[in-house]
Amino acid sequence: MAHPELPVPDGLVLRPFRGVRFAVDDLAAVTSPPYDLIGETGVRELLDAHPNNVVRLILPGTDHHRYAEARQTLHSWLSSGVLVTDEEPAVYVYEQSGPGILQRGLIAEVALAAPEQRTILPHEDVMPGPVADRLALMRTTEANLEPIFLLYGGRDGTATRLVDLIAASRTPLVETETGDGIAHRLWAVTDPDELAAIDTDLRPRQALIADGHHRYATYRALQADHHLTAGPGDGAAVRGRTGGGTGPGSRPHGGAQPWDFGLALLVDSDAYPPDLKAIHRVVPGLPLEEAVNRAKTAWQVHEHPDLAIGLAALREAREPAFLLTAGGSAHLITDPDRRRVQRAMPAGRSARWQALNTSVLAEFLLPRVWGTRDDEQSVRIVHHDPEAAARLARDCGGTAVLMNPLAVDDVLAVAAQGERVPRKSTSFGPKPRTGLVMRLLTPSPQR
């Protein structure tokens, strides 16, 4: 298939859009975590919480009609008034707060950029399965149902000061508290001068994809599809001020279309440092005893009587280190054979990349020690929760591989030099709540 010439944004471009929001009394009951953090049990709980929970859109089922079902549901909710579209395009200030948590940022359309443009930096590889799934959903619904999560270094810039001023002094458009104790507030920024100030501050900056690599790859694939269908002439640069109307804050000229943008939350990591958590693995069908015995050929193994003691030892261990368990006892593996690890590493990778615990896991421990690969077919993923990983390992007759989170500085350094960490290496938070504001790529059905 030919590859069309795609628009090239002249910087980090945010654009206002007409947000789609729920018009229900219990807003918390219709929202959800991001789609990839919801297991089967979570889907059932969300469906039970409210008949209009957004999970019906983002995870609409398992049969081949599921994407059409999501489109039908979306249009039904728009037509009935369960969902409403804001009258005026806006950039939305979004705040999450709770015990030990405060994060503020901007939700808007972000102009899509190729990695080589060094404007929006990926730091993690993607797998074809999730991209194909999200692409089918976006094509069919013609909507961005949940934002990706971007970080940038704001250094007390104009955009950050404005975000904080709005959060401190204005009445929110939306306010709710979810079951995890996190309060969510949303404000709409529509003033042309404020939009222009945000644009001027952000345009020369660079952003890192903290969460949503598969969705960003989907945005780019959908963009390419549309430009391929449209043919030549739609590949001009995305320029001009951000906006969705006319005059100051207007739509960028040069042929930019809705699919040249994607829904994103942009957070200043200087003002609001992210929380980086680990993503654990479970290897089904690899009994713990066998996993430990094989590990002894290349690692130092330290047995601990229970998971809590093992996790405490893991936190203090020198990297790379992993904790193996299936419930009950836990086995900390440390100090691998350095020469064997080095031989397992792919050529051309930086020393910093090679030292990441997820690199050692993906290139040495899984394939060379256990004879498996860190892919969707061979390995199960568990976000954050070591106890849940241990239970899953016990239930599937396998081994949970628990690890410490990567350091934020390591992730930023690897991304800055054009490398990507292995898949499912990072889980940045707090993640935006799905369902607070969505984006349509085509006009909404009239009520």
UniProtKB/TrEMBL annotation:
Listed InterPro entries: UCP033563
Region (Disordered): 230-255
PANTHER family xref list: DUF1015 DOMAIN-CONTAINING PROTEIN, LMO2823 PROTEIN
Name of the protein in its database record: DUF1015 domain-containing protein
